[in-house]
Design a protein that fits this description.
With 376 residues, the protein is mainly alpha-helical. It contains 14 helices and 6 strands. The chain folds into 2 domains: 1-326, no CATH class; 332-375, no CATH class.
Length: 376
């Protein structure tokens, strides 16, 4: 994500997709959620006191949610901004860490309370032992699809501040049900109704789409015939889309169960590869028949494709490190994984960019970034 933030404008392939379709950047969030699920299977391998484990899980989720609220709520501003603090009337309520906190707490509670005690001799026994967790994942998926494709989205309006005037109003014509376009989807409508449009992310990813941007897939001036929704706030980590994030975390949890209950390397690998390829085949089939892969909406096809890819990558790294002992090539990733939250805070709060900009020769523009040819 550091590469996406700093180089995404120059390399569209690593930037987020403006709407339908996926790029390299669109796999990052699901991979985080997937590995959270894997880790939970190991963390709750034994739960001597379910109430105490629940208390600690809730407290950890609340801490994570609060950190996300501080980092992405608007308190920390850009490198060139001299202001700080956030207007509580406009604070962004959802974000990356908030989504992880939601998926984490639901998955943790499932692992603490909905884990069977059946003996495990085969993959079928594993499914039977965790059938209630799988049932929760199925119910969550059905609820998500019911809201996405069954909710009626009426016309709506929004206002934005523009130079030279106070506010400019826009009207978005919808009156549809089950639309998955940027302007009239149920994900955005639910966020506007529950969170309030003033609490949503103000730089929507679809502003880079062909309908909106002259320089698509990069940001640029609005097209003369741009739709009215192009500048409307939209949260890529909204409420309804975070429901499917829970499913990704639950899938990772099942992969972690394989480590806990099976000891042979090849047996583990096969039990990871089979569902991974199955999810990828199903995902591309759904995408082919119209249920497009879409990260902002976190569609079912997107969830399956990213979870399947995460499973393949996980199996590959496991084979490289655990089976064949090649740990040195992954040393940097291991260090980053150990300090992931610290790195995220340094970048999200602009602490690292400000630190780099802070050392210069005679004039502020002669800083370290200019010395290495960045931003010259």
């Amino acid at each position: 994500m550091i590469l996406v933030d700093d180089a995404g404008a120059f390399l569209p392939v690593i930037n987020h997709s403006p709407w339908d379709g996926v790029t390299v950047a669109d796999f990052v969030m699901p991979f985080f959620l997937f590995i959270v699920g894997v880790a939970l299977a190991l963390a709750y391998k034994r739960v001597p006191n379910k109430l105490e484990a629940t208390r600690k899980a809730i407290l950890r989720a609340l801490k994570l949610f609060f950190v996300g609220l501080v980092l992405q709520g608007g308190f920390f501003h850009g490198v060139r901004s001299l202001t700080f603090g956030v207007d509580m009337q406009k604070i962004r309520l959802m974000g990356i860490l908030q989504r992880i906190a939601i998926a984490y707490i639901v998955t943790a509670l499932c692992e603490i309370w909905l884990k069977g005690d059946d003996d495990i001799d085969s993959g079928f026994d594993l499914l039977k032992r965790n059938r209630y967790q799988l049932f929760i994942g199925l119910i969550v998926t059905i609820v998500y699809m019911a809201f996405l494709y069954g909710t009626y989205v009426p016309d709506w309006e929004y206002q934005i501040s523009v130079p030279g005037s106070t506010e400019k109003s826009f009207s978005v014509k919808c009156g549809v049900r089950g639309d998955t376009g940027p302007g009239c989807n149920a994900v955005g409508m639910i966020d506007r109704k529950i969170l309030g449009i003033q609490h949503l992310y103000g730089r929507p990813v679809y502003a880079r789409s062909k309908q909106c941007s002259v320089n698509s897939p990069q940001n640029g001036p609005l097209r003369p015939d741009a739709p009215s929704w192009c500048q409307a706030p939209f949260d890529p980590e909204g409420l309804l889309s975070s429901v499917m994030a829970i499913v990704t975390c639950l899938i990772g949890l099942q992969y972690g169960h394989v480590i806990v209950h099976f000891q042979k390397h090849k047996e583990r690998i096969m039990k990871w590869l089979t569902p991974s390829f199955s999810m990828l085949i199903l995902a591309f089939s759904l995408d082919f028949f119209g249920m497009r892969m879409n990260k902002p909406l976190y569609t079912v096809s997107y969830a399956l494709a990213t979870a399947g890819a995460a499973g393949l990558l996980f199996a590959g790294i496991y084979a490289l490190v655990d089976m064949y002992g090649h740990r040195r090539p992954t040393a940097v990733m291991e260090w980053m994984g150990t300090h992931a939250l610290m790195i995220y805070v340094l970048v999200a709060c602009n602490i690292l960019p400000i630190f780099i900009h802070g050392f210069y020769w005679r004039e502020p523009k002669n800083n370290l970034l200019r010395l290495i040819g960045v931003g010259a």
